[in-house]
Amino acid sequence: MLIRYTSQIGRYFLMLQEIFKKPTKWSVMRTLIFKEIDDLIIDSLGIVCFISFFVGGVVSIQTALNLTNPLIPKYLIGFATRQSVILEFAPTFISIIMAGKMGSFITSSIGTMRVTEQIDALEVMGVNSLNYLVFPKLVALLLYPFVIGISMFLGILGGWIAAVYGGFASPSEFMTGIQTEFIPFHVTYAFIKTFVFAIILATIPSFHGYYMKGGALEVGKASTVSFVWTSVVIILVNYILTQLLLAK
Amino acid sequence: MIEVKDIKKSFGDQMVLKGISTTLDAGKTNLIIGQSGSGKTVFLKSLLGIHQVDSGTISFDGRIYSDMSDDERRELRTEIGMVFQGSALFDSMTVEENIGFPLKMFTNKTKKEIKERVDFVIDRVHLVNAHTKKPSEISGGMQKRVAIARAIVNNPRYLFCDEPNSGLDPKTAIVIDNLIQEITKEYNITTVINTHDMNSVMEIGDKIVFLKNGLKAWEGDKTQIFKTDNEAVTDFVYSSELFKKVREAVLKEGL
């Protein structure tokens, strides 16, 4: 089993190398990149906005309900919401959701191309199929940090609305909380994580789709396996990056 | 012309191609026939470079595939057209875009020139009212025509077809066969067709290579196949009563 995993990891890195060889003609690549931006980024905005807004609200309410001691200031609701959303919720939680949404889309679309011999057709024509299929996804996901930026904003907004209109804190208390002990590096840390997660989100599902074998049933299985591995790698990388960037 | 010399290919312990040599001529429809599991698909994929052979050589008009650099191989592949069993059309593209794809990728033609060439090829394969449709919106026979159009749009020197008639009704199958043969002769292409459709063998078999258990068991043309005494070929080709009767009639009355 260890040999199998090691060989898969090796194959993954060889795939990464292959993505940048024999680039596709720019006029074709440009169209592919715009299409991927539409499929992966624009199409994800709705669900990201919805989840971010309401989870931000829930974080805020949960924090408020746990602050039972009257000596603890109300502005901590805003503080806790900001920290939760910026440090973990937006970059990590949303990326796990995207591993399901974008990841399964990527795996199933590439996997279907494999099953229906479309990838063979590209190769026979002399096209570097990995560059053609995966490179545009990588470029499109460079915009992923913008999605996470929107998620951060809406998460905090959802928290503010839940706290203020739920009667847990006044607008000024929440605003004070948001501004209390703000460390700009936390935002940088979140975006560094997001950038790394974007690369993971583009490449691991592509790997599982590209190298899948079998028929339609296996496409479904590959999507599930891809979601599991993308999530596992995101969680592990999250831990490593947090240790490297935040621990003193 | 494609020359194949003693190619062998194994997957693990299983040897699928056990040393096949043959010559596939230009301007002819070369048919590879044999039972399921005889190694036809592996043979075709080896010619295409999708499978790397263990030993032996494949040369395309004197250019030996194994001696080529990666760039030379990619260059060679631009001279190859391939019709896949399931057509392998790109789902996200329209018929026009599918056919124009090789031109867009490998030539510096303008949009107008591409459009003209695509229209010409669409006309050549007798496709009507399909330009802007997606592959999922057209029939299996039309998909095959689109696949043929895409394969020939960039004037290939070599055309490979994997079971071009599978899933088609007999009438459409004959139309597709005749289309492939016409194109082969018109453009002097080296065409290699992988099939076990006996109608194709009898209609367009300019050269027939019969594979059995990873070996070439017989080769000849559509007239010789009626007369051969090779037991493996007669067992395979005349497995149906209809073809047995056809053979008897042909041998009795001559072709």
Automatic annotation (TrEMBL), chain B:
InterPro entries: AAA+_ATPase (IPR003593), ABC_transporter-like_ATP-bd (IPR003439), ABC_transporter-like_CS (IPR017871), P-loop_NTPase (IPR027417). GO terms for molecular function: ATP binding. It comes from the Bacteria. Pfam families: ABC_tran (PF00005). Keywords: ATP-binding, Nucleotide-binding, Transport. Residues 2-238 form the ABC transporter domain. This is ATP-binding cassette domain-containing protein. It comes from Flavobacterium luminosum.
